Amino acid sequence: MSVAAAVVTMANAVASSAAHAYFDERSYAHSGHGSSSSSNSTTAVTGTTAHGSSSSNTTTSSDSSSNSTSSDSSSNSTSSDSSSNSTSSISGTTSHGSSSGTSTGHSGTSGKHGHSHTSGDPFYTDVQVWMWYATCAVIGLLAIYHGYQLLQKWRRQRKAPLTAEKATEKRLKPWAAAYAGGRNWLNATAFPSWLYAPETVADALWTSAYMVVVFAITFRESAGWSFDAHSAQGIANLFGQMAFAQMPLIMFLAMKNNPISLLTGIPYQNLNYLHRAGSRCILVWSWIHTGLSTIRITGGRDSWSATYIIWGWVALAALTLLTMSSFTIVRRRLHQLFFTSHIVLAILYMVGAYIHWDEEGTWIWMCFVIWGFDRVVRWGRTIWTNRLWKAGRGECTIEVLEGDCLRLSFKRYGFTWKAGQHVFVSAPRVSKGPVEAHPFTISNASNDEHEVVILSRVYGGFTRDLLKAISSTSDKTVRAYIDGPYGQAHSLSSYDHVLMFPMLTHSTGGTGIAPWTAQMLELVNSKKHARTQLVHLVWIVREASVISWVAPFLDQAAALLKANPANIKLAFDVYVTRGSVPQEKRGLDTPTEKSGQLTPDTSESEYDTVAHLPAAPKDISLTSSNEPAHHSLGKLISPEAMSFVRFHKGRPDLKTIIEQDASTCPEAMAYGGESFFILSFCGPLGLMQTCRTALKQASNFSTVLKGQTPIDFYEETLGQ
């Protein structure tokens, strides 16, 4: 017998005995075909190492098997306990957590806890590597598509718009109509808001595709579906490993400073949906791992009291509660509770998962590194943007407007942004927590004065605390910091016609108009490569007096149009659902819904009531009781601005407005890839679903094939 073979045999025998003693002490029955703790031994034939693998083709030398005569190891000389630690002379490769034959490809269970990996193994397995191969491939494809879209926008901006005569010379191809109609159907078909499900068909397809790919990768190396005691633990380990491998991706998708957004052009708030979908996948995979692992626990009460079992249940409970607290109703109605519980439960989950299976701990450390990097970048940018090392740093002026609205003004030199982007605002002396920060869309366009303006309704929480802070003193200045800008701004300058549907958001405190006043100013002020010919805003409000919120922006737009004459038309229609309408600017012949006629998805309260708003404190008064319902328009808006502002009584007929605006686009008969019209929404879920329904009715395969302009649409939700 050779010396090398003898050493191998002795090492296998000692390791096998030690492993059996380790498990018997804990009364836990582990996988019979898993590798022993001597998985790093090598054969004299190949000199390669098998890390936690078992193979029906694995052999040992005749010398080592014939001389293994001790009572502890002789019976195992050709069993999986010894042969799994030898490499096949045929393969000559290193196996990282794989098995063949009738095994389940669970990367072989190590001696500890029935889980995989042994000392000296890499922290990843093949199945986890394939998961990240697929992730990088998808990101790469999206990055290529993003580059193509940027190129198309660049070409559109530099191409002169077609006249009505030239547009009729072109014909629409069926495939282009199918693409336009199908795209709007995918993005505009919504599920009920109360259902804990994807918001649109496109979201559902992304979620389903994600789950299918992860499921396929999980069973990539599985050779069978045998659910006996041994196979159950192997499959359980696969699901557990895939749950760990997804954690860094979920953390990437939650980052504000997101490299995936930079590569793909998808705003982080949109990626936040995939963050939630991936988290649900981890939850399902974790429960499957738990269920299958429970089959292997046969040691009675002592096994259930093992430390790693207890912490496994702690991690699973934290993840389950975290998912339940992420329901839409909690995120929108109890945002601070959602935010706090999200952090606490996420940390508890990761700590519990680490203690439960520390061999997979590298994936968890990655999560902390990613989160820490994001926080450091945000803190550093906050310090730089607000010049915290200078005197008078971080000042914010707050003005109280009619209708429970606050106007926040920040002077931040060197700070620039694009229309549609948002910032996070924190006020150390007002906030309830040291890391409390709230997102607000910037209402004005970037300017030479470096003034950032934010409009926000007072709706409990942070905004009500700001109001209280300035109500007790004559000084309307508070210490507040901004962090940003965030969000991939949608450039609207490459579109011929732009139609916006902002709505006063009574249920969450939003004005609805903030993103679009900035877009309006940016389009009007565009000095080059501006293709846009019409900007049409349709604002749905309760009282006409709220026009005072945007009066400065309307005056600024009028001044820009006068100073920079261009072929751009601006229309600002205000639909007042309650209260009186100024007689001097009442709109005529404008489509409105019939009295009492509502879209099924939208309730009357979403348009006309604010009964669910918290009552203002008795010591705080926003407007005097004897103040008129609305001022004279002449005192609020300049004569130039009054030329494009119109008031209407009632609710707008969204479908008719969309059809009329699309029909006036000069390229209404143009080729599908050459005509451009965008529809933008901002408001509560009820109105968004109403707009989606109107869009599907106005723009589908049939209407586009007949010559209607294809419509792109975009929703502003800040990821909520």
TrEMBL record:
Residues 583-592 have a biased composition (Basic and acidic residues). This is ferric-chelate reductase (NADPH). GO terms for molecular function: ferric-chelate reductase (NADPH) activity. It comes from Cryptococcus amylolentus CBS 6273. It comes from the Eukaryota. Keywords: Cell membrane, Electron transport, Glycoprotein, Ion transport, Membrane, Oxidoreductase, Transmembrane, Transmembrane helix, Transport. Its EC number is 1.16.1.9. The lineage of its organism: Eukaryota, Fungi, Dikarya, Basidiomycota, Agaricomycotina. One of its GO terms (biological process) is intracellular iron ion homeostasis. It is an enzyme of class 1 (oxidoreductase). Residues 29-110 have a biased composition (Low complexity). It is found in: Cell membrane. PANTHER family: FERRIC REDUCTASE TRANSMEMBRANE COMPONENT 3-RELATED, FERRIC/CUPRIC REDUCTASE TRANSMEMBRANE COMPONENT.
